């Protein structure tokens, strides 16, 4: 019997109906597939049944990686590493489809890293990912809501995001104390041009560092009270960070880059 490791945030999805739902969200036959955190291989088995062209999994747990290799043999390629150290652009030469029941303790870090590292050519066709519900709520949140923040702005920059469903703790082993949510991400054809994603990360980090305060202090810190930018973007400094929509943060990032070019 495999004992899940708390240190790795392991909660194995065991609900057969949810597993079937996930595997039917996109076409798999003759496609290149990546699964992150396959655990005991419950979803892996269903993906193999759909006959992918190539199938790679990333599993940090040495014991699980070994068992997956023994169980599936040459049907999958197992990368026994931390997903945060793997260059996703080098896994396959073609676009891939990604499935992931992400470890809850690093799920936002994984998503943020993938988004920040995105080039103009996307390395994936879609991401089908599981998060804690509260994290998923932040990812899909709109401006003027309590869940809206850095993660919302960053996630929606280059990606269309759709919530598939919420999933109860009983669907996992061991049962987590919170609900989960399944999201699907697909590339946007058109997105706001920003030279460096890290600049967007910086802008949002500074603005949302104290979300209850007005915009005046972070704006002055970043733009030295530049009134031209205020008028151009029609920003009221008496508002708070959650009152600016994502598009305004992309515009602010562009202005920030222009000042430093």
Note the run of SSEs as H and E: EHEHEHEEHEHHEEEHHHH
Termini Cα gap? 58 Å
Q: Look at the structure and give the mean pLDDT.
A: 93
Write out the strand line-up for the largest beta sheet, numbering strands in chain order: 4-3-2-5-6-9-7
Q: In the CATH hierarchy, what is the architecture of the largest domain at level 2?
A: 3-Layer(aba) Sandwich
Structural class: alpha/beta
> In percent terms, what proportion of residues is strand?
15-25%
Shape, principal axes of CA atoms: elongated
Q: Total domains, how many?
A: 2
- Sheet of most strands: 7 strands, mixed
CATH superfamily of the largest domain: Vaccinia Virus protein VP39
Task: Walk me through the structure.
With 261 residues, the chain is of the alpha/beta class. The protein has two domains: 182 residues, Vaccinia Virus protein VP39 (Rossmann fold); 63 residues, rRNA adenine dimethylase, C-terminal domain (Helicase, Ruva Protein, domain 3, Orthogonal Bundle), CATH 1.10.8.100. It is built from ten helices and nine strands. It has a seven-stranded mixed sheet. A two-stranded antiparallel sheet has the order 1-8. Strand 2, helix 2 and strand 3 form a beta-alpha-beta unit. The longest helix is centred in the C-terminal third of the chain and has 14 residues. The radius of gyration is 20 Å and the shape is elongated. It starts with 11 loop residues before the first strand and ends with a helix.
Sequence-ordered SSE layout with sheet pairings:
Layout: E1 12-13, H1 16-23, E2 32-36, H2 42-49, E3 54-58, H3 62-72, E4 77-79, E5 96-101, H4 107-116, E6 124-132, H5 133-139, H6 150-158, E7 159-167, E8 172-173, E9 180-187, H7 197-207, H8 216-223, H9 227-233, H10 246-259
Parallel strand pairs: 2-3, 2-5, 3-4, 5-6
Antiparallel strand pairs: 1-8, 6-9, 7-9
């Amino acid at each position: 019997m495999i004992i899940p490791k708390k240190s790795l945030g392991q909660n194995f999805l065991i609900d057969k109906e949810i597993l079937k739902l996930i595997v039917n969200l996109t076409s798999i036959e003759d496609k290149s597939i990546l699964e992150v955190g396959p655990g005991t291989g419950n979803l892996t088995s269903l993906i193999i049944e759909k006959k992918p062209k190539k199938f790679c999994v990333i599993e940090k747990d040495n014991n699980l990686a070994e068992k997956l290799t023994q169980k599936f043999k040459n049907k999958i390629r197992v990368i026994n590493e931390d997903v945060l150290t793997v260059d996703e652009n080098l896994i396959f030469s073609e676009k891939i489809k990604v499935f992931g029941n992400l470890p809850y303790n690093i799920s936002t870090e994984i998503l943020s890293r993938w988004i920040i590292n995105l080039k103009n050519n996307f390395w994936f066709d879609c991401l089908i990912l599981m998060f804690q519900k509260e994290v998923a709520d932040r990812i899909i949140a709109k401006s003027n809501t309590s869940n809206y923040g850095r993660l919302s702005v960053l996630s929606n920059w280059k990606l269309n995001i759709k919530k598939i469903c919420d999933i109860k703790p009983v669907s996992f082993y061991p049962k987590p104390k919170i609900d989960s949510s399944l999201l699907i991400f697909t590339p946007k054809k058109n997105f706001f041009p920003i030279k460096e994603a890290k600049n967007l990360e910086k802008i949002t980090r500074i603005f949302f560092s104290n979300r209850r305060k007005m915009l005046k202090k972070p704006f002055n810190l970043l733009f030295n009270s530049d009134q031209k930018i205020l008028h151009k973007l029609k920003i009221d400094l008496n508002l708070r960070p959650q009152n600016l929509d994502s598009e305004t943060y992309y515009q602010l990032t562009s202005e920030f880059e222009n000042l430093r070019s």
